[in-house]
Fold this protein.
Amino acid sequence: MLDIKNLHVKLEEEDKEILKGVDLSVEAGKVHAIMGPNGSGKSTLSYVLSGRDGYVVTDGSATLEGADILSMDPEERAAAGLFLAFQYPVEIPGVGNMTFLRTAVNAQRKARGEDEISAADFLKLVREKAKELRMDQDMLKRPVNVGFSGGEKKRNEILQMAILQPRMCILDETDSGLDVDAMKLVADGVNALRDAGRGFLVITHYQRLLDHIVPDVVHIMSGGRIVQTGGPELARQVEEEGYGHLNEETA
Amino acid sequence: MATPTRVKQQALQAKHDALDARLAAMTMPAGGGWIASARNAALTRLRETGLPHKRDEYWKYTDPATLVQPEPVPAALLDDGGEAPVFGEIDRIKLVFVDGVFDSDKSDDPSLAGVEIERLEEASTRDIHWARDLYGTLEAQGQSPVRRPLATLNTAFATDGVLIRVTGKAEKPVSLIYLHKSDTSDAILHHCIKVESGAELTVLENGPAAARFNKVMEVDVAEGGTFHHVRAQGRDHERRAATHIFAQVAREATFKSFTLTANGVLTRNEVIVEFTGDDAVAHVAGACLGDGDFHHDDTVFVTHDAERCESRQVFKKVLRNGAIGVFQGKILVQPGAQKTDGYQISQSLLLDEDSQFLAKPELEIYADDVACSHGSTSGAIDEEGLFYLRSRGIPEGPATDLMTLAFLAEAIEEIDDAEIAADITARLEAWLARRRR
Ligand SMILES: Nc1ncnc2c1ncn2[C@@H]1O[C@H](COP(=O)(O)OP(=O)(O)OP(=O)(O)O)[C@@H](O)[C@H]1O
Ligand SMILES: [Mg+2]
């Protein structure tokens, strides 16, 4: 589904390489987790994949179902099925959450040559998904993320994911800022979307999220590279031992 | 070397030369009675001031030359591409002016319960007391502390306009529609509106009016009265306009004015509000979308001369491709105007580096127990927000539009009527979408 090969990325503004040859493949139907120390490049990877400005790909490739996503605009990547749940969701004053969601759904449909969703169907869909995430109607009416608590913002990301139904979902520390119950809700939201045609890349620092969203594969990123790959037990090892062991192995 | 006094004298001379040249090209409308004396009084005042000049402090950011010169710069008519006119779906009494001349065939029968509507041209033949007391009066009062000679010129030479007196709650808006049919038209309209105690009226205005348009509206809102004004200035890009609204707001009265402007090589909208009674409210708002050869100037002066009055000025400008936006806004709180609540915000969204926003926000306060705030900002589109929208599949154009509408929202929220606000929003969306094509 998502194939990243030897991806090298530097900052546009300064000559600083952040990703130093990332290799990673997420198969359809699988959940991959990425863990790794602060500043190792996890968010950078998610931003580069979703098309944020400010980075220059100096080498390597990234494809989504064979299509070169790095040459696409962010909106084209979204229409192709890529979704990033942001580590820091952005507040957009003045743009209502509902307007935003409807515009996004219809823009993606249009890009895929489908008809717009009817107002009634859209409302029904949003109400249903919001209810599952225990988001009240008031949050849907408010401007996007404005005045939302940290946890509410993260739930709003998952709401968007549930509504847009992307095929490749990247979650960047969606668990941070969530209380125990909210984490369960978010995990349920993710698990509900797990199916044979969908891939997940879950970036997290904590085993706790992975208790709920059980990964098929766990990667450790350090210094802009994937330095270790294993099964769910790797996450538990990190939880217990931290990243201290990396120094010897990657030196 | 020119000494400062000499420069000043030269500037003054230029203002009077400009007036002489302009007057030579004009004739005072015929007719006697009270209106003739109001016109003559205005002409006398005008002879003292001359016409505006770019060296005037008050015209620092906007060159008045084309508004002042004897003949208007020709303005091509717009092919609107069949776009439905604004306010089209709103039930209203339509009064149509073509190049500044009232057209009764195109207009509705002006009968509306609680509202008397007269044509200015017919006014001089009859002694309409309230109009006699209002015509040129608020305009003359509004000449201090700053001179506004284009308004005085208007009082002296306006050829048409309406006189509206409201004694009840008008059940629908009066809609003034200004059509532009000649590319050299030079229109001067003067409206007087008197909202009697407890009465209510909404006035809508739209249309380019003429190649050059000079319009004055004097609005007197009596105790407990309510006046709403919503205006859309769009379409013909080459038109030039100088408009003034002079409002006097009495005890517990409400005055609210909103203007949407898109297109226009030159627009100067002045709003002058004076509170004359306690506990009154006045809001003046504007949203403008400027693209390319566009110069838009909002000049607002609110005087608090009563207690516990609330004033708001909310101006938002979206500028691109070298467009220029100007805001000069003042809140003057006179001695004794205690518990004044004054708010003023002027903001621009600059979509590129060629565009400019020139702002002069001012507070002048002579009372000690007041809450006044003002702010002015200029900024580019929020790239983080834009990326967030795009990452959800919304292409750059529509995403920019969404953020642009969001930026303008605070001004549009100043329109109380939901149906009219929706109409204005729809208009904006259509304009934004059209510009992307
Ligand atoms: N725009 C930028 N300007 C300067 N440095 C940057 C920029 N973007 C990323 N970096 C640097 O790149 C490195 C990787 O950052 P990134 O946010 O990808 O880390 P991360 O693995 O997501 O960390 P965390 O676990 O703290 O979220 C950091 O050292 C960061 O400071
Ligand atoms: Mg991160």
In short: The interface with chain B takes residues 50-53, 73-75, 77-79, 83-84, 86, 89-95, 99-100, 103-104, 107-108, 111, 143-144, 160, 164 of chain A (CB under 8 Å). The two ends of chain A are 31 Å apart (CA to CA). Chain A has a mean pLDDT of 91. Residues A 42-43, 87, 172-173 surround magnesium ion (ligand 2) (CB under 6 Å).
